Each structure stands twice: as structure tokens, then as C-alpha cells.
Amino acid sequence: MRAVDIIRKKRDKERLSKEEIGFFVKGYTNGTIPDYQAAAFLMAVYLNGMDNEEAFILTEHMMHSGTVFDFSHIDAIKVDKHSTGGVGDKISLPLAPLVASFGVVVPMISGRALGHTGGTLDKLESIKGYRTRLSPDEFKKALESVGVAIIGQTEDIVPADRKMYALRDVTATVESIPLISASIMSKKLAEGIDGLVLDVKTGTGAFMRRYDDAKLLAKTMVSIGKMFGKKVYALITDMNQPLGRAIGNANEVRESVDVLLGKGPSDITALTVELGAYMLLIAEVAQSVEEGRELIKKAIENGKGYEKWCQMVENQGGDPDAILKDDFTRTRYIKEVVSSKDGYLNIVDTYKIGVASSLLGAGRAKKEDVIDHKVGLYMKKKHGEKVEKGDVIFEVHGNDENKIEDAIRVLDGSFEISPTKPEDFKLIYEVID
Fold first, then answer.
1. What is the mean pLDDT of the chain?
2. Cβ proximity of 257 and 251 under 8 Å
């Protein structure tokens, strides 16, 4: 087999065999296929696509390019959740311990911020001492003892994806449904899970801005999961405005704790409850989504979710009490973005809100950028709320005045004040099963 023949075949819109896809994934992972041929292959897939079976085969070979965890010795159903990314999306933080409080094992391998979207690992590393890098043995022990762990991808987990994603990022081939699907599902399936709930974002702050693209991505990933014999649900959810009121790292951790303590923003709480309900349904703890919702709400009310959160944080080296102290989110400067007139807040571009947070130092433009965990934004008004001239729309918390001014300039283009109330955004659009 030759790489050039496989590239030509996909270039000409032909279907690739299991052997051809396997040859290419293995060759690129071990270095016998060079970057320039892999780039050509990725562009051919980007332009001509793959059918569901090809995407399944690609996922399978990528998953087996490294370690695949086996947690069968743990007598519990293993379920995870994955979000396609957004602004203010801290759902994993309260969700994982809430679900684990029912005896479900939640092995969560998460990512970092890049571009305008936040990263779960960066948020958790706001907690002094919290270790996101656990060895495979430490990961297993955490799941055995606590039932939940949120860690980063190790060198041994899906190395094919790590190489391919880096190449996609610099060859304009990121926005490909089969490539995104294989990237996400290979990592999730390598966790040794029995089921998965997908949170597929759509809107101005999502990678899939168009609803039809988000739906196709959701259906493709659900199809791949079922081909592997896994129970999978995908919820298509809104990213036309940030989730919650905090955008950053430490401030999002604090807001996540507020959710667990029963005093979080309504949208974050509602989406956490909904995703948790489907996870409990997969785990057979709940017999219906309605029952699952009630159980998650109960775990918030009785403090079981917060108790499990504290166990997880302590087990991975962090101090949960430190999160509740003022210093956890304190910055040198706070500036305000105010309304210039009376009317209603209309969020028109959530992408810019994510960029503003990143400019403050809460995110990365490049992988090697250093995160300032304490900086971030607070939305004092949400989309559709009535505002008067002089009302604060955003609080900007930073440690560098120049960065704050840069962030404010970007924020000014993210919203407008409308004379009439804009249409509400629906939090959850559709469930794909």
C-alpha cells in the first residue's frame, strides 16, 4: 500500500477500505508517512467527506493508536460527557461529581483552552495543587476510590489524534464533521466507558455556528458510538450567549461550586441537570429522563454532589475550601462596560466575548501561552434583560491595564442595546438518540 494512492482515492471522492485507513493512521502516527502527505489526506477528507462507516473505521484506528483503558474490574457503569466547546462552559465541573454521587464511575479526560473557548483543565488548575496529569495507575486508583477524576490527555492516549489535530489546526482542516467526530470519539472511547452524553454547541460562540452542521456532527458521533456498542445521547444546546455569568478560569470554578451549593445561575444549573439526567439514564440509575432530573436536583439540594466534588479535588491534590475565599478570584483591576442608553441587551457575537476573555490572559492564542487563572469577565446582564443608561453590562477583571483596554474594545462589538426585547435563545434545541 502507498500513501499517495490513498490520497488520490479520497481526492477522487472514492470510499476508503478499513485496511487503507488503518495503513494511513498507523503510518502517520509512527512517522513513516510525512506531514505533507498527511496534510493532503486531511484536505481530501475535508473537501470530500467520509461516510459513517469510514468515520467509524478512522475512529477505531485512532483509538487503538495508544492506550485503551479497561475498567471492567470496577463494578459500576462508566459514563462520561463531552462538550464541543464554548464560552463560559463550565458544565463538566459540577456535572461529573453530581453523577458520581450516585455510584456511577465518571472517567473524564478533558482539554485546554485554545482560541476563544475555555478549557476544563485550565479551570481546574486555578485550584492550587490540583493535579490534572495523573498516570494511568493513578487514574484507575482515583476511579476506584472516589468514582470520578478529571484529567488531561496523557502521551499514551490516542497519539494519532494528537498529531492529526496539530496538523489540522495549521492546514485549515479543523471544521470537518468526520475528522471532528473521530477526534472526539477516539479519545472518549479510549476511556473505557459504557456510555456517553454529548453536548453539541451551536451559535455565535460555537465551532459549529450553523444548526445544520451541529446536528450532522451530533448524528455522526452518536452513530459512531452505537457502532462501538455504546449508549450515546447528543444534546444540541445554545451558544449564542455565554453560559452563566462568569467567563474565565477561577471565576468559573467558583460559579461551578455555586451550582453545587444550590445558588448557581439558572442556565448553568438547568443544563447540568439535563445532561446529568441522561447520564443517569445510561447508567440505569434512573428509568426515565424525568426521574434523572429529579435525582440530580436532589443531589444538589442534599449536598451529595458538593461532597463528591470536595473528595475529587482533595484526591487530586487541591484544597476545595480555598475556592470559597475572596483571594481565589481577586485581580488588581476591575473595569466596567456600561450601557450607553435605555433598552434591552442583545448579545450579537459570543465569539468576541470569548476573545475578550482570552486577551485578558484567561485563554490561549497559541498552545505555549501562559494562563492567568484569576482574570476574567462577569456578565452583569444577560441577553434579553432590560437595561438603563449607565447599567453595567460586563465587569472586566484583570491584572494588566493594557490587556483590559484591549478586551473592552472587543467586548464593545459583542452586544447592542435594542429598543425592543430580542427573541430569547432556547437553551436546549434537540436530543439525538
1. 95
2. no
Assign residue 279 a region: left if phi > 0, alpha if psi is -120 to 50, beta otherwise? alpha
Domains of the chain: total: 3
Query: What distance lies between CA 153 and its chain's CA centroid?
Result: 14
CB 344 within 8 A of CB 418: yes
Residue 74 lies in a domain: no
pLDDT, tens digit, 9 for 90 and up, residues 356-396: 999 999 987 776 778 999 999 999 999 999 999 999 999 99
Sign of CA dihedral 4, 7, 12, 16: positive
Neighbours of 408 (CB within 10 A): 18
pTM of the model: 0.93
Instruction: Please write the tens of the pLDDT for every residue from 284-302.
Output: 999 999 999 999 999 999 9
41, 86: one domain = no
pLDDT of residue 367: 66
Tell whether 350 is covered by a domain.
yes
pLDDT at 424: 95
Could you tell me if residue 70 is inside a domain? Answer: no
- Residues designated as active site: 82, 161, 168, 183, 187
Residue type, 13: K
Helix (H) or strand (E) holding 106: strand 106-110
* Of 46, 48, 67, 52, residue with least CA distance to 161: 67
Residue 238 has pLDDT above 90, yes or no: yes
C-alpha 67/C-alpha 115 separation (Å) is 28
Q: Give me the CATH number covering residue 376.
A: 3.90.1170.30
Assess whether 172 and 316 both reside in one domain. Answer: yes
